[in-house]
Amino acid sequence: MSETDVSGDQKQQQQQQTVPLQDSTNKTSKFTDVADALGHGNGLDSYGNRFKARMPVDRYASEYNMNHPKRGLALIFNHEHFEIPQLKARTGTNVDCENLAATLKYLDFDVRVYKDLKLRDVQKEVEKVAMMDHSEHDCVSITILSHGELGYLYAKDCQYKLDIIWSYFTANRCPTLAGKPKVFFIQACQGDQLDAGVSLAERTETDSAGSMSYKIPSHADFLIAYSTIPGFYSWRNTQKGSWFMQSLCQELNQHGKKYDLLTLLTFVAQRVAYDFESNTPDIPMMHQQKQIPCVTTMLTRLLRFTEK
């Protein structure tokens, strides 16, 4: 199991007047932005107050502020054994966990590892962290190593959707992380489809407003890196660990303090795509298959794990 024509006659056209576009910051504009939905919230908390959080960086800064006293917490939820009968033990996941913990420590994270938790315990730990004061932290990172299928991950006892976890860290629920990166790494299958890959021939010559306060969306500044694309298998070597975690750790260890995270994840995808191929000759259908990671980003700046 492993995101008018309008037609009208000439007379009507002559009567129409051109309306100039209005600056969205112009308070005198007669136009109103509307939501493409049946309803919308009012941006208020349960007490009728608008959400407010401390501004961690200038409005148009190109990079996140990674100069707080601490890098932040990194949680790793490592699932090897399950109570669900059809889920096999994930041999090799402990190698992933150990390698990733060492890598995140190298990047100055305070790493906390949790093994084979039930969903309610996963939620308790996540909620506990979300309620902390992260004012002195650059960011937060959460990794889930588990089985999965399209749209779902597995805890020890049941399946769940990832938004159950990341929703604890939205800006309105965790204000001391508002405007700061929330980074998720997900090693799990997202389905049962296989990718046999395509052989490429060698190329030939013929191939040819400053620091004033500002508002942010509650769901800004998240990044979720999945080991594979929706609907497909994610591969794991029983001795060396998963392809994605091997590649992620190698890239972060070699260049983690040099390049921004999206650049790093591009090279992680390159490693997974080009350096790995399944080796299951006893199961021909599964043999010589490929994999490509997938990144969902709501980051609004470049993220670099600079030296502490």
What this model shows, in words?
The chain has helices at residues 10-15, 93-106, 119-130, 163-166, 243-255, 261-275; strands spanning 73-78, 110-115, 140-145, 148-149, 152-154, 159-160, 182-187, 222-226, 236-237, 241-242, 294-297. It has 308 residues and is α/β, with parallel strands linked by helices. The protein has a domain at 73-193 and 219-298: Rossmann fold (3-Layer(aba) Sandwich). The strands form three sheets. Strands 2-1-3-7-8-11 form a six-stranded mixed sheet, with helices on both faces. A hairpin with a 4-residue loop joins β5 (152-154) and β6. α2 (93-106) packs parallel to α5 (243-255) and α5 crosses α6 (261-275). The longest helix is centred in the last third of the chain and has 15 residues, at 261-275. 29% of the residues are buried.
Using the CA coordinates, give the radius of gyration: 23 Å
Oligomer: single chain
Instruction: Please summarize the sheet with the most strands.
Output: 6 strands, mixed
Q: Give the SSE string.
A: HEHEHEEEEHEEEEHHE
Q: Which shape, going by the Cα principal axes?
A: globular
Question: Poorly predicted ranges (pLDDT <50, ≥5 residues)?
Answer: 1-28, 203-211
CATH fold naming of the domain at 73-193 and 219-298: Rossmann fold
How many E-type strands?
11
CATH architecture of the domain at 73-193 and 219-298: 3-Layer(aba) Sandwich
Ends: how far apart?
A: 40 Å
Strand order of the largest sheet: 2-1-3-7-8-11
Which percent band covers the strand fraction?
5-15%
